[in-house]
Amino acid sequence: MSNPNPKPTLENTQLKDIVAHAKEYGFVFPSSEIYDGLQAVYDYGPNGVELKNNLKQLWWRAMTQLNPNVVGIDAAIFMHPLTWKASGHVDGFSDPMIDNLDSKKRYRADVLLEDKAAEYENAGDKPRADALLAEMGKLLTDNDLAGVRQLIVDEKIKCPVSGTANWTEVRQFNLMFSTQVGSVEGDSTLIYLRPETAQGIFVNFLNVQKSARMKVPFGIAQIGKAFRNEIVARQFIFRMREFEQMEMQFFIRPGTEMEWYNKWKETRRRWHEALGLPADKLRFHDHDKLAHYANAAVDIEYEFPFGFKEIEGIHSRTDFDLSQHQALSRKKQQYFDNDLDEATGKPYGNYVPYVVETSVGADRLFLAALCQAYTEETITEGEGEKEQTKTRTFLKLHPALAPIKAAIFPLVRKDGLPEKAEAIFNDLRHDFRLVYEDRDAIGKRYTRQDLIGTPFCIAVDHQTLEDDTVTVRHRDSREQTRMPISELGRYIGDAVSFKRILENL
Fold it and tell me: Where do the annotations place substrate binding (predicted)?
């Protein structure tokens, strides 16, 4: 029998350190923690909400500001229940579920198999990993749940808690949350919390196209909450029941979908790299099992402490969504294209557009940014007999993403230094998110800012009173630069501008 309490690996130890750091320094808290929390639901703290908002704003600007043919909307969470009938969620939005009879723990059957495939790949046996994923994809496509269970048994997959392979049968589990509304009459009082934000875009396709005078190809972007009753919610904020999506649906002429699919696939990977996620920790993963609406799909995966996992999906959705809504609503979802077809010399005319989707999990992106930024390094301080080596922990966030852009410190709390520091703070706070702090030794203040990722600390000392210069300490290198107060706004502004990221796209 396997050891039910295996020793912690480097990977899950690192994740535990990051989770603890996120709570202690105001990034992420367990929701309603005073009542022992609610599984797979989290709250963003003072620093977390700033980082998450920066990530969302950067995505929004990259989509709607750099692409003149992409506009945004903010659709309601509640939608007419027929929306989810048309989309296929009512009849087919489920995951394969399996229980271990000894531990009483519930798992997603496909995730168990994906984790096994990752083991093979990490051991250097990629052909075996690919074969396992291909077999799983075929079984799920055929809805052969007995075959999925047998594959788990054949692969000798055991419950990580009990260490046994005493599995139940595999069943399908619907992921949508439902609720009641009093304003809908008769039997239609059942509505759903949306499981994705995309449908709010599709049902507004013509509203946006006409009001914004958009011409195919064009995109509609949206950031919003979605809700899924996950079978197994784990790995911190990676898989939650309430989460936020950043999606863009790009409407195109039928027959051009693969061209646009490949273009957006490369464009979105470059965006993640510009954000600061290294190329060697990103990879594409093509889907073995395609969703009912897709003719091509790929994930952009990031290497978290728990392995490569999806942070963004790019899907060629064909005309499935608009055609389904057209059929069920009996309202045409067509676009008249007056561009000339080179083959016939005539206008393309009316058609239901095809769609290429890019969908980023805002919470997963937040976690990837946090994992990438979390840095521990060995440094040496002091000289001679006072020299000592210690471990320094800091968040190496891109300055544009950092929750706090700069911290203002008077060296001491007297001699007019606090007043001078406050004057600098009051001048710069109109442009940047700042903190002012005058407690404890300045070394401790530097450390506190390192732990939340503040890129610059500005020290006001007695020389400042003489020549209006300050010392700017840089988070990553710990180097210090003397500069005039009059240059601070330009210097910080240049470093923390989103332009520093967007210009790399």
Answer: 108, 196, 243-247, 357-361
